[in-house]
Specification:
Blueprint (H helix, E strand, L loop, with lengths): L5 H8 L3 E4 L9 H5 L4 E4 L3 E4 L8 H10 L5 E4 L15
Antiparallel strand pairs: 1-4, 2-3
The structure holds iron/sulfur cluster.
């Protein structure tokens, strides 16, 4: 029998995603300052991030993407999904 917990349902429906091109990332850390609940360093240079942040964090994520000096942060959707990157009022 297959069951769906709320977490499983969320991961299947909430498709907006954030991707960091780690080949492009130079560990400047601007994203960590802009969105510390989403981006963090593990060790001195290894960037970690939440690829599906809570919708309430998307304003921070957009600021982080804008602050990245090498444009390594992309915001998008999972192919085949009808969800979009959440709009943030006032932006
Ligand atoms: S701001 Fe850009 S280059 Fe700097 S750590 Fe974040 S993703 Fe990497």
């Amino acid at each position: 029998m297959v069951t769906s917990s709320p977490a499983n349902v969320r991961s299947a429906v909430a498709a907006p995603r954030l991707v960091v091109d780690l080949n492009r990332c130079q560990s400047y850390g601007q994203c960590v300052f802009a969105a510390p609940t989403v981006f963090r360093f593990h060790g001195t240079e290894s960037l970690e991030y939440d690829y599906a942040p809570d919708p309430g964090r998307w304003a921070e994520v957009r600021r982080a993407a804008a602050a990245c000096p090498v444009q390594a942060i992309s915001l998008g959707v999972v192919p085949g999904s009808d969800s979009a990157v959440p709009e943030v009022p006032g932006e």
